[in-house]
Amino acid sequence: MELLTVNNICKYFSGLKAVDDVSFNVKKGEIVSIIGPNGAGKTTLFNVISGHYTATKGKKIFDGKDITDLPAYKTAEVGITRTFQNIRLFSNLTVLENVMIGLHTKLKASILDSLLNIAKTKEEEVQCYDNAMELLKQVNLENKCMEYANNLSYGEQRRLEIIRALASKPKLLMLDEPTAGMTMQEAMELVQFINHLKYEEITILLIEHNMRVVMDISDRVVVLDHGVKIAEGKAHEIQSNEKVIEAYLGRRKNSA
Ligand SMILES: Nc1ncnc2c1ncn2[C@@H]1O[C@H](COP(=O)(O)OP(=O)(O)OP(=O)(O)O)[C@@H](O)[C@H]1O
Ligand SMILES: [Mg+2]
Q: Which atom of ligand 1 is found nearest the CA of 85?
């Protein structure tokens, strides 16, 4: 069953066709990777899907609903959360506070509740703390819960951002280069963690440059080049696709 369908998505910046007529879908429970050379349009496509950009043309259907015109915060409310290529954490808040902010959008206690029934709010705060610590444990950050976010290593900050995105229990989690700046060991630990999310019925769409991660993790791969989808298939099919080798690997070789 399809969770996300994007149909003929275009995003133009003046004359530049950053995303040009891209269609694909993500089925419930799948891990789909988007790959392609630098500037291929991957992040722009993410921005369109998450509602941070409005598509120039095209349609997005999520969980049976047309979400084409929803802004980012509404898109998050229907169950799509994401991380960013350039990490966006509250650097002067602690690790714990960063996760609790992600959880707060789910808290039921309103301001009126807090005025009339302090106990309920307190109870929710305690639950919020417990949930945040539970999430941090999953990525081995519980011992750093009182650190300021900007004191974490790059890899730890990426893990924290993922946990914060997970805090609101999304149906679709979108990760823009989650292993960037990580050591190979950290990257492989993250792969394990992402794989485990599958069993929690979270569907994942990720942009990834690390080919070992792509091969290990993806049920399917979508390849972009110059804003256009040039291939789609299982990881091993993509690996031997002539167009992909030429566009992606070829250009990387040239720029190396
Ligand atoms: N807000 C913007 N205004 C104008 N041009 C933009 C904007 N965002 C992206 N672009 C351009 O769109 C093209 C695609 O960029 P995008 O960031 O989506 O690529 P990418 O595949 O994510 O690349 P990378 O692998 O380097 O992250 C690039 O030519 C980029 O300069
Ligand atoms: Mg990008």
A: 27
